[in-house]
Design brief:
The protein has 7 helices and 18 strands. The protein is an alpha/beta fold and 316 residues long. It is globular.
Length: 316
């Protein structure tokens, strides 16, 4: 854990609050790679993941930006309402689930709304490498375009493009044409609302882009799947059996039984609650594990995943 102080706060766009965090002891912060995020421990007890959006060469600060979500589960609301300049907070060690391929001949960065945050750090890194890239920021209106002023003044401004739904037709994103113009070795990075991301990924697949060239990071899980039925959890170390009804998660049942399972996002995005499976077949509903990892059926995320088999035996 790292103790930080909020040194500055700035409204980056409508409902998007930017925070500048510095180490409480004045020391340099740990280095980070483009695409990395921190776990921010909020005053109301919640832990939320936010991508770092500043130049990865900077060691004196971390920058994040948080959209106030009307459907907030308490995280973004706490950032906007409870945090103040000078306040001390704790953050986790850095993690990167959205790594940048620095050897790619070209990178195409596509941001929808608040999805600009990790891609902004990528743009800084690619600029530092003198790499070939383009950053496209898509927003519903100009007032929702976070970092628009900073991007227009950035040393890589010529590589950036802003597309507004409320602007004239000439500046709107023509995704099929953009994808078709990319050379074969280009890597695509997309972040933003789930609908935007699926549109981008499906469009790329339709044009023959291989999966290994498509990179994404989710800020929120898609709407939870319904059903799945009840199942049993068996604890390998003790033989204890716990019943998971249809309307409860495996995590809730485990916590009620006294098991201390680390949890952060609660949506299957971050992998914090990942638990080893000894026997049985999980029904994976997370966005953290790769297809290959899911196929092994040796771990699952109890916050959202369920079971295809009648019983899951857990290494607890």
């Amino acid at each position: 854990m790292i103790e930080v102080i909020i040194r500055a706060m700035r409204l980056e766009a409508e409902a998007i609050l930017g925070l500048e965090l510095v180490a409480a002891d004045g020391a340099p912060l740990p280095p980070f790679e483009a695409g990395a995020h921190i776990d921010l421990h909020l005053p109301n007890g919640l832990i939320r993941q936010y991508s770092l959006c500043n130049d990865p060469r900077e060691r004196h600060r971390y920058r994040i930006a948080v959209l106030r979500d009307a459907a907030s589960r308490g995280g973004s609301q706490a950032v906007h309402e409870l945090l103040r300049i000078g306040q001390r907070l704790r953050i986790s060690a850095l993690r990167n689930l959205f790594a940048l391929d620095e050897q790619a001949p070209r990178s195409l960065l596509l941001a929808g709304g608040i999805g600009i945050t990790p891609l902004l750090a990528m743009a800084w890194r690619l600029h530092a490498l003198s790499a070939d890239f383009a950053l496209h920021q898509c927003v519903r209106s100009g007032k929702l375009a976070a970092f628009a002023e900073r991007l227009s003044n950035a040393p890589f401004a010529a590589h950036t493009h802003l597309h507004r739904d409320d602007g004239d037709a000439a500046q709107k994103l023509d995704l099929p044409a953009l994808l078709a113009a990319e050379p074969p070795g280009s890597q695509l990075y997309v972040c933003g609302p789930n609908g935007f991301m699926e549109y981008v990924l499906d469009s790329a697949r339709a044009q023959g882009w291989a999966e290994e060239r498509l990179h994404r990071e989710y800020f929120a899980a898609p709407e939870a799947e319904s059903g799945g039925g009840a199942f049993t959890l068996r604890i390998a170390s003790s033989g204890l059996e716990l019943q998971v009804p249809e309307d409860r998660s495996a995590l809730e049942v485990l916590e009620d039984a006294g098991f201390d399972i680390p949890v952060s996002c609660g949506q299957g995005i971050c992998g914090t609650c990942l638990t080893r499976v000894v026997d049985g077949q999980p029904e994976h509903r997370d966005l953290f594990l790769s297809d290959e990892e899911k196929a092994r059926n040796d771990q699952f995320t109890p916050c959202c995943s369920r079971s295809r088999s009648a019983c899951l035996v857990l290494d607890l």
